[in-house]
Amino acid sequence: MEIIIQPTQQAATEVAARIIARLLRDKPNAVLGLATGSTPLSLYQTLISMNLDWSRVTTFNLDEYIGLPREHPQSYHSFMWENLFQHVNIAKENVHIPDGNAADIPKTCQEYEDQIRAAGGIDLQVLGIGTDGHIGFNEPTSSLASRTRIKTLTQQTCKDNARFFGSEKDVPHHVITMGIGTIMEARQNLLLAFGPNKARAIAEAVEGPITSLNPASVLQMHPTVKVCLDEPAAGELKRADYYRWVYESKPAWQTF
Ligand code: PGA
Q1: Does 233 score more than 90 pLDDT?
Q2: Domain ranges of the chain
Q3: Full-model pTM
Q4: Of 14, 99, 123, 139, which is the active-site residue?
Q5: Does domain 2-191+208-235 have CATH number 3.40.50.1360?
């Protein structure tokens, strides 16, 4: 794991954006895994401002609420089109977001897995982290080998996401999410976290034992993970000075 601690959210976002921009320049037909929520918003704004060529890029989103109409302002379809896709030259047919309104949920989950495989697998997966350590919507105790499937949100996640819906009772309880096994097959994972309320989840994920109680901790088993943090999100890391030292000491060919 490469832990990149920056003074501000904006600075950490810019590092993440440069990592993605480099991928899109090196591999114009890259397959990106994308995330929703507050965390990637500034990343998407930065990527939009970079005027990258998205014409051959394929995307797969991590998750979607079940039963929310696609046009609902809080559906992840709406989120992605509003905050990224409508501002770049991506081809509509290259965008994939789980269908939370499918009549046959297990079938649509299997098809999503098949589509990822048919696209050649995910080159880079963007991840946020829940205050409980979830990645995608893989809540604590999710199987570390899980694939795309239905999950029930924890009450904590419903509380965390109530801010988007106006009230907790309006947050759907069920979601489709890529599994942890699916995420672990991405060639590269890029985890972003900002603010003090993510500090504990990040410390457990990076420095704690690998446990399904903090699903992000499984990323310790992935060969290529970068974690972009602002100072508050890094606030509970015991080895923060070492991670800063590593980043400052990078050879020029390794910098972003
Ligand atoms: P947030 O959510 O970016 O809105 O904090 C992160 C997550 O739940 O994965």
Answers
A1: yes
A2: 2-191+208-235
A3: 0.97
A4: 139
A5: yes
